[in-house]
């Protein structure tokens, strides 16, 4: 467990170092399909005053949940018939009528 936390700590330490390439979004934490999760996306989800170990665990949980939800959503979208994918256009057509 300590080894895992150490590896995660190193990863987040490197992730927290900003560079010109990262831009305003921050460090890329995860990618699932064509979706990307950046450190700026989760900054508001981390309460202040947490220890480093608690912060790392919280980031891990957030990233794991995001990946799981994104993969499930992508799979659901692939399984959805084309007609059902066009719900937004159907709603707009209904609103205009």
| Helix proportion range | 55-70%
| SS summary, helix count | 5
Number of DSSP-assigned strands: 2
Q: What is the global morphology?
A: elongated
Order of helices and strands: HEEHHHH
Structural class: mainly alpha
β-strand percent reads: 5-15%
What is the residue-mean pLDDT, rounded to a whole number? Answer: 80
Nearest-angstrom radius of gyration?
Answer: 18 Å
What are the low-pLDDT stretches, counting only 5+ consecutive residues below 50?
none
**Intertermini distance:** 60 Å
Oligomer: single chain
What does this structure look like?
By secondary structure, the protein is mainly alpha-helical. Helix content is 63%, strand content 9%. The protein has a two-stranded antiparallel ribbon. The longest helix has 28 residues, at 52-79. The protein starts with a helix and ends with a helix. 4% of the residues are buried.
């Amino acid at each position: 467990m300590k080894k895992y936390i150490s590896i995660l700590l190193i990863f987040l330490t490197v992730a927290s170092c900003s560079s010109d390439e990262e831009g305003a979004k921050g460090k890329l934490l995860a990618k699932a399909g064509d979706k990307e999760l950046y450190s700026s996306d989760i900054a508001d989800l981390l309460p202040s005053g947490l220890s480093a170990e608690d912060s790392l665990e919280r980031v891990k949980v957030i990233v794991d949940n995001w990946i799981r939800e994104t993969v499930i959503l992508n799979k659901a979208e692939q399984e959805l018939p084309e007609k059902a994918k066009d719900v937004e256009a159907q709603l707009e057509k209904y609103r205009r009528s």
